[in-house]
């Protein structure tokens, strides 16, 4: 059968499309990588300033009100954070350029005064809003606008964490669970790599850890990591439930956003003071807590640390402070894994590593991203490179956490397209009730 005229024309245009995306993705990588680098240094300045001057925590109520006022002045009171970025990719909804400086500044304020949050939520919004606006400036069509938004997400995540494979796949996987946007694989990969190069040229370090006690694959170790996966799934559910519950309680009892910001800051301050009763002048739960994550990877963690971090993060973000949940999830997973692993006969360092990526998978519903994250974060153990069999242990733990965490998630706009338990099209949002009209993959409606 001879190719039609339209088929021939399509094949002739494919090299042009490829070259177009090489150019666009590289440009997004340069721009977003530069902004992400500035964010990294501002973030660490805020963390360092708070460490040197703990009295800044007394400004928590003021910081909460200040962030609320910033969003009010900019007309962004209804901002929904990373959820807006997911909608922008799935539905090509417009993202305002003002989102980037606004979330940049408000996240720095959050960390300067000691709120418990991460940095990835901010950087995804920054990268997504900048790239989305660039796409509209150069008049990209509906489909290409979605791809360039994913490029911005990839470049920002890669520049900040130094994990380009994780960043590229995360942008493609997080929007619709069960559906990968493979058309974006070249643009996202190029944007992530260029963003990483830009960050590295300004000495932004990659996030990486060295694990110890990684076992070989055996029936015993397989059973152990399956058990850990079950625990991490429950931990993921608890984290999502806690963060969402805090938001609902704030809205119900403190409908005024200014009062909510002030009360949330005061609550974080009070929680910090309570922690001092058994650990005087401990600020482990304020800010992102990266030092605690590093200590857990070395095999040291307080048994109550994961619960306190969930509480601090829920109280902070529910009140309107900005940042993200992913680094707190790393904290929670690492400290819990470090504590629980010895109970199942595993090394605490290995348990902390499992916890970081498996809890991440449970709250984001992104198993492929989580496996690549394990490879990029823990590519070397104390004996050298992780073996393929050792990586299998991570894969099994991640898979169990993904399956048993159910349909909870950090992002309410994330679409769960296919069931986790059977080949069935369900098409529901995370945290929503299931759609009773779902059909199997063999049915007529089995499509995203």
TrEMBL record:
GO cellular component labels: membrane
Organism the protein comes from: Candidatus Flavonifractor merdigallinarum
First-listed, main subcellular location of the protein, grouped into a coarse class: membrane
Pfam families given in the database record: Voltage_CLC
UniProt-annotated location(s): Membrane
Chain spans, region Disordered: 429-448
Sequence intervals crossing the membrane: 21-43, 55-74, 95-114, 147-172, 179-202, 222-246, 258-279, 326-346, 353-374, 386-405
Keywords linked to the UniProt accession: Membrane, Transmembrane, Transmembrane helix
GO molecular function: chloride transmembrane transporter activity
Membrane topology classification: Multi-pass membrane protein
SUPFAM superfamilies reported in the protein's UniProt record: Clc chloride channel (SSF81340)
Record protein name field: Chloride channel protein
């Amino acid at each position: 059968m001879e190719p039609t005229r339209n088929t021939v024309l399509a094949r002739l245009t494919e090299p042009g499309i490829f070259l177009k995306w090489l150019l666009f993705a590289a440009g997004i990588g340069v721009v977003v990588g530069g902004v992400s680098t500035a964010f990294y240094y501002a973030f660490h300045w805020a963390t360092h300033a708070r460490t040197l001057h703990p009295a800044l925590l007394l400004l928590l109520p003021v910081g909460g009100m200040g962030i609320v006022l910033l969003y009010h002045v900019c007309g962004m009171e209804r901002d929904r954070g990373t959820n807006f970025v997911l909608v922008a990719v799935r539905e090509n909804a417009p993202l305002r350029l003002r989102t980037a400086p606004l979330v940049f500044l408000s996240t720095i304020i959050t960390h300067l005064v000691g709120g418990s949050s991460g940095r990835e939520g901010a950087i995804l919004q920054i990268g997504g809003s900048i790239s989305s606006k660039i796409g509209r400036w150069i008049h990209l069509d509906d489909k290409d606008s979605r791809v360039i938004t994913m490029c911005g997400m990839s470049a920002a995540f890669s520049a900040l964490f130094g994990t380009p494979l994780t960043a590229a796949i995360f942008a493609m996987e997080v929007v619709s669970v069960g559906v990968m946007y493979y058309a974006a694989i070249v643009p996202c990969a190029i944007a992530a790599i260029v963003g990483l190069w830009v960050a590295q040229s300004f000495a932004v370090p990659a996030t990486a850890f060295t694990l110890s006690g990684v076992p070989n694959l055996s029936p015993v170790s397989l059973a152990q990591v399956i058990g850990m996966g079950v625990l991490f799934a429950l931990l993921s559910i608890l984290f999502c439930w806690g963060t969402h519950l805090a938001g609902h309680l704030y809205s119900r009892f403190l409908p005024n956003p200014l009062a909510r910001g002030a009360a949330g800051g005061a609550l974080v301050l009070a929680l910090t003071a309570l922690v001092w009763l058994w650990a005087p002048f401990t600020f482990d739960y304020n800010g992102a807590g990266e030092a605690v994550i590093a200590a857990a990877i070395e095999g040291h963690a307080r048994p109550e640390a994961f619960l306190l971090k969930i509480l601090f993060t829920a109280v902070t973000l529910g009140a309107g402070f900005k940042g993200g949940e992913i680094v707190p999830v790393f904290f929670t997973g690492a400290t819990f894994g470090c504590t629980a692993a010895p109970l199942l006969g595993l090394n605490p360092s290995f348990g902390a590593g499992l916890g970081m990526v498996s809890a991440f998978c449970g709250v984001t519903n992104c198993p492929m991203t989580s496996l690549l994250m394990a490879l990029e974060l823990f590519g070397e153990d104390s004996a050298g490179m992780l073996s393929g069999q050792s990586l299998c242990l991570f894969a099994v733990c991640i898979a169990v956490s993904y399956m048993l965490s159910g349909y909870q998630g950090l992002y309410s706009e994330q679409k769960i397209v296919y069931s986790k338990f059977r080949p069935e099209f369900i098409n529901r949002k995370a945290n929503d009730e299931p759609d009773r009209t779902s059909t199997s993959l063999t049915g007529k409606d089995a499509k995203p």
